[in-house]
Design a protein that fits this description.
The protein has 349 residues and is α/β, with parallel strands linked by helices. The chain is 42% helix and 11% strand. It has helices at residues 21-31, 92-103, 114-120, 136-142, 167-181, 183-193, 215-229, 238-245, 249-260, 264-282, 287-294, 299-310, 314-321; strands at 9-14, 43-49, 55-57, 61-63, 67-68, 77-80, 108-110, 128-129, 147-148, 154-157, 160-163.
Length: 349
Amino acid sequence: MENAAKNAYRVALVAFPGIRAFDVSVITEVWGTDRTDRGAPAFDLRRVAAETTPVPMRGGMALHPDRALTWLSRADLIVIPGLDDHLTPAPTPVLGALRRAHARGIPIAALCGGAFTLAQAGLLDGRRAITHWNLIDLLRAHHPQVTVVPDALFIEDDNIWTAAGTAAGIDLCLHLVRRSHGAESAATIARSMVTAPFRTGSQAQFVEHPTPRADRDADALAAVREHALRRLHEPLTIADLAAFAGMSPRSFARHFTAETGVSPLRWLLDQRIAAAQKLLERTDLPMPEVARRAGFGSEVTMRQHFASRLATSPRAYRAAFSTASASVSTTPVSDASVSEPAGNNPIAR
């Protein structure tokens, strides 16, 4: 929907014949739905194209542009959908407009095969990029000047974001919301979409053995993740988690990585950072208490991880994204102060 709020975050969906309907739907679901009544930011999503005529998409669908390419100069973020035919040439005016937008410092994101559009524009020359794992060789062959990363969900290079296929596009969109508006806003949108609110870009696109050999092991790993999330404030170790799963530490680490695409330690650190982000946004707890509840042990350790993973400090993050109104929660980090159910109607807005 169109949001006319003056202070709305302006997002441009770049449209031309050949774009994927799925990616258009993802972009529209994340930035085109009004969730301000639930505390989400106000967004102004516009469908930008070289011409005002409907843009055909596969399946008999069509997208109706509502802004010309000149609107890209006003955008806070530009998002390019993937393509049905990954070698589809983008219109020359689109490529020129993208180059000008990048020169102005506007962030640009491409989902899945949208990386090919950025490569056509020359914006990925000498830069790192990712696309669907099945398209990596094609991107390398047609654009050898691009440094193609073989295994990631999404990456950034010089304010240009690229993502792997399908679900990774959702991950990137939610990450971009998190980056500009904070973890709580991204979690609000993720809950309404009934999708995972937090997957890091460095996670593997897929694994050769996506599920353990026995359902019993899969159930044990799901239980251990829930166990860990409820006890993030405790000094958990791999040995602790393996014992809870009824496995040896080596077997546990192997099965955990096979199922999730990340090591247990990396997963645990991701969850601690996400918990700290929410506490910084929702409460005015002192930094040592935030660090304790998120399981970092000390403010120094938390600050080091924020610097390496988020390129910011906990204090700067709170200053940018805090929604607390001097209400300090005494609820442990593992309870509703960090993780909330989706509600009685999880697919409503």
